[in-house]
Amino acid sequence: MKKLNLNESFISRIWMNPSNYGELRTTEGKVVEVLSYGKPNFDSGADFSDAAVRIDGVLYSGDVEIHCSVKDWKTHNHTKNRKYNKVILNVVMWGEEDEPEAKTTKRTIPTVVLSEFLNKSIHVIWKDLINNPAPSLLLPCSKDIRKLGGETVKAWLNELGMERLKYRADRIKKRLEMPGGEHRTADDKGAWEKVFMEFVFEALGFSKNKEPFMKLAGLLDLQKIKTLCKTLEDFDAVLYGCAGFLTNHRDAYAYRIKSKWSVLQEELRFETMDRSEWNFFRLRPVNFPTLRTAYASGFLFELTKGDLLRRVIYCFKNSPEAVKDLTGILLGIEYSDYWKTHYDFGKESKAEKSAAGQSRAEDVITNVIIPLIYVYSREYRDDDLFVKMKRIYVSEEDRSDNVILKMMKKQLGLKPSSVCESQGVIHLHNFYCSKEKCSECRIGEKVFDRFFVSEAIPETIYS
Ligand code: SF4
Q1: Residues 123 and 15 in one domain
Q2: Which helix or strand (DSSP H or E) is residue 87 part of?
Q3: 3-class DSSP state for residue 351?
Q4: I need a labelling partner for 4 at 20 to 30 A (CA). Which of 114, 272, 278, 370 fits?
């Protein structure tokens, strides 16, 4: 079986469904019987607490840790971390030839290599999970929704898609008009650039690091940066320095930007963050904030030295294939070579890494550029631009996907045909299904009687 790089929440879901595997054994050949999977832990520490397993007839109760590979116990530094002292079983998807043992400071932890006991392919399990969501993720209307007819649901999703665009545009407008800060007037080019930067930084943070990225953006004075920073490495110095990522790293690149930072900071006097404010926990290296900061630095270089915002607006206005060309502009942003082979200071990656790929670029276009053009075209009364923006939003094919979109699409029984519909699905999930607002939902109005009380589905991934 090919060793896919699976995320731990997917492996957890495989683990929690015993129909996916046969009799389990530890790497030492001892029979494992699961009596209780325990409670999922969304904080730091092991993945499940209060689990109970019987290993070769002996009952153990405590925590269960889930990993993709057997070596992850060591690379995640669990051995000396006291939060892992109660782990009774280490469940990994893939084994290694020369398997390092999972250990605390006092004992060795039994390990199960799940892939050795699966009774179906990973692909089949994945399809099962999407087609049969856990009861906690089932929409209360899911049984009756198909009776409504696709057109009713689609019309509602389009309305919600526009609601979501307006919601995003309002956030941008508020930042633009923020009193007391740099964002004073909509005529000020610097204010537009600052807001553009803030929301692109937020998008680079995904769900786990959007606040720290927003904070970082808030600490940067673009005017000072424009005046003092000349090269891409100057920008790296400012961003990594300000983010608190420059600690005691010894390679040549780290040394150079650290030196540059100490010189530039003499003039800039920016407030700085601490590395502990950033979230690395449960992230794959490709999503590490250190790697995303490289793209943020290249973006900032283009914004201040390459008139990026003007180019984006020009492209949106004039290109017959605006989305394709904007994607090209975003993917064409250069960042330092060091970050093509590293995901953190001193930590090399085996294959060349991309600090922001195609899906991130499309995400920035949908969630930042289109709402920004909405505000810009209203502010400058550019009706042609407004009409073009709306046409793109309602007609452009949407390629984004994530677990919530997959789950919602399956239960609604449709495939969104545009960015607008897809955004409508996310808005429906986040602002109606997750907030128990069935009585305000067009679907709920038709499916339930007015005395129906719904329960919110528990997961929100986008705000
Ligand atoms: S808000 Fe609408 S779509 Fe969501 S669960 Fe309620 S009725 Fe269904």
Answers
A1: yes
A2: strand 87-94
A3: coil
A4: 278
Please give the tally of structural domains in the chain: 3
124 plus 205 within the same structural domain? no
Q: Is 441 in the pocket of ligand 1 (CB under 6 A)?
A: yes
Per-residue pLDDT tens for 177-213?
Answer: 875 445 555 558 888 999 999 999 999 988 789 899 9
Whose tokens are 């904070």? That residue is: 215
In this structure, are residues 263 and 272 in contact, taking their beta carbons and an 8 Å threshold?
no
Angstrom distance (rounded) from CA 139 to CA 430 = 12
For residue 52, tell me if it sits in a domain: yes
Task: Show the domain range for 297.
Answer: 177-395
pLDDT digits 0-9 by tens, 358-377 = 888 999 999 999 999 999 99
Cα(350) to ligand 1 centroid in Å equals: 45
Ligand 1 atom nearest 412 alpha carbon: 3
Q: What is the 3-state secondary structure (H, E, C) of 188-218?
A: CHHHHHHHHHHHHHHHHCCCCCHHHHHHHHH
Are residues 241 and 224 part of one domain?
A: yes
User: Which pLDDT tens digit goes with each residue over 288-313?
Assistant: 999 999 999 999 999 999 999 999 99
Question: For a substitution probing ligand 1, which of 148, 156, 426, 441 has the most ligand atoms within 8 Å of its CB?
Answer: 441
